Amino acid sequence: MQVHRTVDVLAGYAWRLLVIAAAAIAGLWLVAKLWVVFLALVVAVLLARVLASPAAWLRRRVPAAPAAAAALLGLLLGLAAAIAAISVAVAGQVADLEPTVSDAIDDIEEWLVEDSPFDVSRRDIDEFRESLGDRVSSSVRDSSGSIVSGALVAAEGVLSLVLGLIITFFLLKDGDRFLAFVRSVVPAARGERAARMARRAWHTLGGYLRGAATLGVVEGAIIGVTLTLVGAELAVPMAVLTFLAAFVPFAGAIVAGVLAVLVALATGGATAAIIVAVVAFVVQQLDNDVLAPIVYGRALEIHPVVVLLSIAAGGALFGIAGSFLAVPVTAVAWNVVAEARAVSPGTSGPASRSTP
Questions:
Q1: Residue 133 has what pLDDT?
Q2: N or C: which end of the chain has fewer CB within 10 A?
Q3: Residue of 53, 333, 342 lying closest to 196 (CA atoms)
Q4: pLDDT in tens, 235-247
């Protein structure tokens, strides 16, 4: 029987898409099964990228192993000192954050029921809260329906962190040997393209980390100062939370802004909440439209919709850790694919753009 050409073309695309989908599902299944190892590798790569410059500076003065150990130990001591300083600054305030947000939500519910122009009853509020609670409870269940053990999750996180630190040491110590091994297993004809893809991934990751940290400092400082000036409380904890939220682009800033407004409403009143809301909105627009393209550069040349979808997918598949890791993984993959599609130097056609 003669098959129409359109049907034949669609069928060809369909089975190819099915094969791609099956491969993607198999890859996600493998990552889920080896989540501890995968998380350790991601942590190691992130830490190695942060420590690459200090370790390189130390290697010019001391052997590779002491240089790697000194760089890693310096980072750990710096983090410990920063955590200690933050803990002293927010002592007695972090515990007040949750009840403060709850009080603000209660105030909003009271306004919706008593004074708002909307037809909202107390029963509607209670049903919404019950439904939201059921969804949150179901979100922490695994595929078999049992509650995931918090102790098991914590143990896996500690194991991943320890493995990540060990792998980071060897990446800093033997990074050149790893690169030489990769070059040895890649066909010679594709060696230059593979090297360009690796450099693109490395620069993308560095640009993302620098950009997220820079925006986090700017947003956290502005939100903290604003809360202080309007007479609200918990300015330091909200500044720290805003800084951490910057590592989840777009979505993190929105969540941190909403929490800042709720804190201002509960501790400073409606006027303070309006001022904080306006400042948060202006800061987010300034960051997204002006600062982000400058500080991220090519590291995050992907559409915000892609970023938001990657965050949602990472959170749905791997929880909070997936939400934090979704953007750097997506950014690296996006830029590596872009580099792979570029025409390699020495062939006809445009050459790939140089890495930043």
A1: 62
A2: N
A3: 342
A4: 888 888 888 888 8
Question: What share of the chain has pLDDT > 70, as a percent?
Answer: 84
Q: pLDDT by residue (tens digit) across 308-326?
A: 888 888 877 777 778 888 8
Domain ranges of the chain: 193-356
Residue partners of 31: CB distance under 8 A and separation at least 6 = 38, 318
CB atoms under 10 Å from CB of 326, counted, come to 25
- Rounded to 10°, the helix 94-114/122-139 angle is 140
Report d(CA 258, CA 12) in Å as an integer.
47
- The pLDDT-based confidence of 351 (bands split at 50, 70, 90) is very low
Distances (CA, A) of 108 to 187, 233, 282: 63, 18, 23
State the CB neighbour count (10 A cutoff) for residue 308: 17
pLDDT beyond 90 at 73: yes
Residues 238-265 as b/e (b if ≥16 CB within 10 A, e otherwise) read: bbbbbbebbbbbbbbbeebbebbbbbbb
Percent of the chain residues past pLDDT 90, beyond the cut: 7
* Three-class DSSP labels, the chain: CCCCHHHHHHHHHHHHHHHHHHHHHHHHHHHHHCHHHHHHHHHHHHHHHHHHHHHHHHHCCCCHHHHHHHHHHHHHHHHHHHHHHHHHHHCCCHHHHHHHHHHHHHHHHHHHHHCCCCCCCHHHHHHHHHHHHHHHHHHCECCCCCECCHHHHHHHHHHHHHHHHHHHHHHHHHHHHHHHHHHHHCCHHHHHHHHHHHHHHHHHHHHHHHHHHHHHHHHHHHHHHHHHHCCCCCHHHHHHHHHHHCCCCCHHHHHHHHHHHHHHHHHHCHHHHHHHHHHHHHHHHHHHHHHHHHHHHHHHCCCHHHHHHHHHHHHHHHHHHHHHHHHHHHHHHHHHHHHHHCECCCCCCCECCCCC
Question: Between the CA of residue 195 and those of 46, 179, 256, 336, 355, what are the distances in Å?
Answer: 19, 9, 39, 11, 11
Q: What is the C-alpha to C-alpha distance for residues 276 and 224, in angstroms, rounded to an integer?
A: 10
